[in-house]
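Data deposition worksheet. Section B asks for the primary sequence of the deposited chain exactly as it was used as input, without tags or linkers unless they were present during the calculation. Section C holds the resulting structure in token form. Section D is free text for depositor observations; keep each observation to a single sentence. Incomplete worksheets are returned to the depositor.
Section A, Depositor: J.P.
Section B:
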Amino acid sequence: MGNTVAIIGSGIAGLACAIRLAKKGHTVSVFEANSYPGGKLTEIQLGGYRFDAGPSLFTLPEEIEALYKLHGLDPKSHFEYKKLDSICKYFYPDGTIINAVADIEALKKEIHQKTGEPKKNIQKALNESSFLYESLSPLFMQKSLHKTSTWLSKLAFSAYGKLLRFNFNRTMNQVNEGSFKSEKVVQLFNRYATYNGSNPYQAPGTLNIISHLEFGIGAYFPTKGMHDITQSLYALAVKVGVKFVFNTPVTKITIHEGKTKGVVTKYGFHKMDRVVSNMDVVATYEKLLKDENKPKKLLKQAKSSSALIFYWGIKKEFKQLDLHNIFFSNDYKAEFDHIFKQGTVFNDPTVYLNITSTQKADDAPEGCQNWFTMINVPNNQGQNWDEVIKEARVNILKKLSAQLGEDIESLIEEEDVLDPIKIEVRTSSSQGALYGNSSNNRYSAFLRHPNFSKRIKGLYFCGGSVHPGGGIPLCLLSAKIVADNFE
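Section C:
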């Protein structure tokens, strides 16, 4: 006999958790404050342009496929995607362009030709990233770090003997500077710290694990756009009996004698045996568990960076641009110092440009492109965001215009903006941080909130603000950890 389960929030982790728990025979109800599922993984339409509003990189598609296979369905009949031959184009201030292709031999040749970096250095770094992934992924990404059984497992004992190679005691930048001769290649590999909102000059070298996701496993694109991940999983959840209640924020998790009893919404009290919060963990404690003891030290951990995104409908097609494009800052360290130490935005920010119309033509009118234009910014600490946005827009347009040899502002015919305050309001992310706590110290992996409450029986947590971390793959894995540990 299954339990009745309330899931708070229908972000990617909430959807995946609902699908997994339904398979286990539980009766699942998802309460969502917004009128739509998906959390950050949603879309917007501006005139004839469609934009994926949030996450734009798709890796580990097998974690999506696993949810269909769990219910005996063929994933390919419900969700289509393709592997990218070109992962990302990197544009440097001096005019150098590196096309990071999926073929490793071609990648090494490209980087060597453009930077002079010896191919053996590139291969060695990729091998190290692969080693980190093979050694740590089964432990840190697939299991709860908050159960004794994890640390007494064969996987753990195998990892203990390799501790020095994991580079916990060196920063990502220190490792990369020791691996490469070219500053351009160091910058390219340092960039992976931004995949979980961290600073490569502070975060442990262990984060070099991230590059393996793209170069070792591959980057992909859902043929209907990133939002189709949300749409497909929502349809699957409904198909397997999950109930969704939209426009209905949960206002309280009811606890009695140390156990969850249900949730409260505008419709009253909903009796539930178990509760899973896909809401940001800080907001969960501050808003829904006001009367309970809070893990104050954990909740006060420094938060990750946030994002400032301009959605631009561009009335021209730039053939030299790809799906993923990076325009690097001339001073990467200064950029991260501004974000993490000064709480401001550098005047020469690194610009990420995502253009889905390069893969999905109907995302923009013919001869046009949909530019998802993003820079990393500090989380919300009370900055004057109107001023920050105004200044950043000028600097971004100046940078892109110079690099592309065109007045970009004159080509913008549609525009919308997403900033840390809007991110916080729409997704309840503490301070508008995209990835919960930052990973800017060697213990960060161990400082994330567990996927269950140690104090309250029947209370669980999934999503980017808890273990194992932010980003689509880790959110999906957090849902798996919850389901695997469901009691």
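Section D:
The first strand starts at residue 4 and ends at 8.
The chain has 16 helices and 19 strands.
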